[in-house]
């Protein structure tokens, strides 16, 4: 049984290293959007390259995050966590010195691999190291510090972009890793999952990531590439997706067991997740560009302008979870997406000469209240819809689904809105496309609300609640604090 106490020096070191490691991945998912216009100008990149700067990271992270938890269970959570931190830091260094957009995109894909190794490992280390009496408080502190990091991330990113330059958004991860790794090796005890045996479902992970990458390529390149190439890539992506489903159904212990979707509640909540996080992923990608390209904000001002949504989540998510416990998740998961949709429609007022107080802030406050209303109940309902022994697996699948939805939205929205390759250099054209994109995002949220109203029910009494209620990330729901023991095959 783990016996480290939170008040001990070792307990504080463990908390520090897990916060540092997870913050690296969390910060990168929030600050890069703010840097995109400057990256585009400095590297002479078109709109597709900016989309890939975001999505190359998300493809490998979403496709491999389930496998990352399994590797920690097998080879040791500390070992895999440290490898993930080092990998992420090296990839960040490559991003920071990238001479062109192609190298930057490749390095971002490598960053996603590192993120898939360290993201599930940070909470697994807390759960495996701390005494049961201190575990809940340790997870709460980890979640709270992570939320603070998410809140200040866009501000710090904007300051770096306007000051030393966008490359420091990535280079900042290197000193964080230099601090994190020695602390982990010296103070964090090694742990491994019980009963972790058999072969890894590498084929399933490769097929899943390949399907995401190919379909993303087809969506991003549809506006400018050879139509035959795009069609062939789309077909290949569909074939890979079908092959993934077939492989997972035939393996005795797959990475993503299909039978977990036999729960109607689990399936419904994941459909809501896809709708909600597709809209949120698309919004945060385009809003940072809109504020800089159209409204004329600096990177620092744009990053600061987006803070209210994260601050609201940090302050109110726990109370939202408690309310959902009393009234059930159906109403919050129905109302929350509608509030988010209203916030995005209010963003239609944000154009040239927009006032922050009169135009931007009201939209972000409504959006933030919608996110507060739905995020904690969504995670709790996912965990309550399966057996407690599969809570970690359910949380990992839900987290991966959210990230996959976000990357598809980033790929598809510019195509749906008619953005050209040079859209971010043309304020009037970008403003028009932004308005269409917000309408698409609002529509996806309305669909999510309808699914929740029709299919989500109150979980049975005594269902497992999430421990990460204060996590302030906006690109995916918080991972469950219990070790995410992934299936091996």
UniProtKB/TrEMBL annotation:
Any coiled-coil regions, as ranges: none
Pfam assignment, any one: MFS_1
SUPFAM superfamilies in UniProt: MFS general substrate transporter
Signal sequence bounds: none
Superkingdom per UniProt: Bacteria
Keywords: Antibiotic resistance, Cell membrane, Membrane, Transmembrane, Transmembrane helix, Transport
Annotated transmembrane regions: 12-36, 48-68, 80-99, 105-126, 138-160, 166-188, 200-220, 226-247, 268-289, 295-318, 330-348, 360-388, 400-417, 437-456
Chief site of localization: membrane
Membrane disposition: Multi-pass membrane protein
InterPro entries (UniProt xref): EmrB-like, MFS, MFS_dom, MFS_trans_sf
Domain Major facilitator superfamily (MFS) profile: 14-460
Subcellular location: Cell membrane
Protein name per Swiss-Prot or TrEMBL: MFS transporter
UniProt organism field: Streptomyces coeruleorubidus
